[in-house]
Design goal:
Length: 63
């Protein structure tokens, strides 16, 4: 599957989830996306999601 097809499928799934929540009177949905994943952020923003906060998380990996 190419990236364009994946983006279209994700947009369809987001729309379906949005309708499912609306039918149940759930009016707030939250998602978490990594800051460097700008494409994912834009996809959600194009589907009426708003950025509510930005946080920095630092990880230390031990071998």
């Amino acid at each position: 599957m190419n990236k364009k097809t994946a983006i279209i499928i994700l947009a369809i799934l987001i729309g379906a989830a949005d309708r499912w929540f609306a039918e149940r009177n759930i009016n707030q949905i939250s998602v978490v996306v990594q800051g460097r994943n700008v494409k994912a952020q834009r996809l959600y923003q194009k589907n009426n999601f708003l950025t509510s906060s930005v946080e920095l998380w630092y990880h230390l990996w031990f071998n």
